[in-house]
Amino acid sequence: MQVGVLALQGAFERHIKTFQKIGVNALPVKSPDDLEQVDRLVIPGGESTAISMLLNLNSLRAPLQKRISEKMPVFGTCAGMIVLSKTVLDGREDQIPLNAIDITVRRNAFGRQIDSFESELEVKGLNEPFPAVFIRAPIVESVGNSVEVYARVNGQIVLCGNDSTLVTSFHPELSDDNRIHEIFLSIESKDR
Ligand code: GLN
Question: All domains of the chain, ordered by start, with CATH?
Fold first, then answer.
């Protein structure tokens, strides 16, 4: 298995380190050639408008969209969740999401009250709570039938997935806890 981490902008290095801790080598993905090398991909936190624009500038949008339509496993954290969503609220007009998962997300939704916070998250399938770090985090306002919800904060969905996609409002790579990354690695690859 070759894991990739989209490395155009944002918090990609900590993801690569988390995979190293698990014993998995992760390739930084900056070009269509890099994308060809990987069979699953993380889209990190950062700034979703910038990541969206940089996908275009680096000729990655079309090949990535194709891989997603072929069901390559993808994992989006915070800004990455926004990039992988179907519909973005409070986004920029030219910010086109990749529609890997049937969710509507609102950007900076917690940030109106508070910029960042930590929460001991009860996650479906995990025995112990996950220490989740939220930074100007989006929330998932609605999900389609294909989506399974794994965790909420104050009733708001912050972790969910479908058969090839996992998305979190928070930054699991910033916690000293590999379990969410391990869930991503356990998604069965069907595209290759
Ligand atoms: N607010 C950022 C955005 O809209 C996401 C923040 C983050 O990834 N920590 O893209």
Answer: 3-185 (3.40.50.880)
